[in-house]
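Weekly sync, protein design subgroup
Attendees: M.S., D.O., the rotation student, P.L. (late)

Item 1: inverse folding check
M.S. brought a backbone from last month's batch and wanted to see whether the design step gives back something sensible before we order anything. D.O. pointed out we never logged the input encoding, so this time it goes straight into the notes. Structure tokens as presented (179 positions):
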């Protein structure tokens, strides 16, 4: 069986509708979206909240991927977090209403990627150095800093998710083969 080879997004050319300086952000988000969906679509719900070797569960990573994009892009719009976002943050790592299955979490992540790409497309390059504040401590950043960090953070958690999910699936296959 041959595995489909995907050219990475950064080698596919410019993403239509995205400003030139924000192409790397769009490429990173699209790459993460593809990789997460490729692996997790067939991932069993029974393994979603399992932890191995003290690392976060796949369910946490899926929740966090969507949540962090929502929060960082909110700050980039110069908005503070609302009560729903704060509540969402406090429940990351455990099943929640509408966030307990792989399908639900993938849907939430995919919607957030679409929203992020839409916002990137509406972001002017001139605004990238505009000051923005993060969190209750109002730590300084910029529009560009927030968007690039969102892409980097998404890539980091995508890598952690993919490794953890593969280990859990391999461990599950081994245990099923033993029975």
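Designed sequence read out in the meeting:
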């Amino acid at each position: 069986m041959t595995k489909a080879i995907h050219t990475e997004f950064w080698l596919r050319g410019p993403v239509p509708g995205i400003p030139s300086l924000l192409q790397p952000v769009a490429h990173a988000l699209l790459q993460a979206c593809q990789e997460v969906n490729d692996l997790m679509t067939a991932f069993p719900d029974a393994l979603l909240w399992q932890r191995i070797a003290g690392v976060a569960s796949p369910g946490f990573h899926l929740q966090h991927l969507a949540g962090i994009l929502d929060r960082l892009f909110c700050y980039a719009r110069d908005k503070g977090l609302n009560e729903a976002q704060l509540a969402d943050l406090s429940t990351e790592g455990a099943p929640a209403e509408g966030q307990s299955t792989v399908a639900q979490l993938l849907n939430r992540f995919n919607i957030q990627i679409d929203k992020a790409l839409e916002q990137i497309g509406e972001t002017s390059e001139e605004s990238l150095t505009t000051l923005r504040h993060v969190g209750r401590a109002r730590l300084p950043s910029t529009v560009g800093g927030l968007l690039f960090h969102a892409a980097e953070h998404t890539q980091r958690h995508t890598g952690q998710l993919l490794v953890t999910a593969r280990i859990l699936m391999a461990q599950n296959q081994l245990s099923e083969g033993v029975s």
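Discussion: The CA atoms of residues 5 and 34 lie 12 Å apart. The mean pLDDT is 94.
Action: P.L. to compare against the previous round before Friday.
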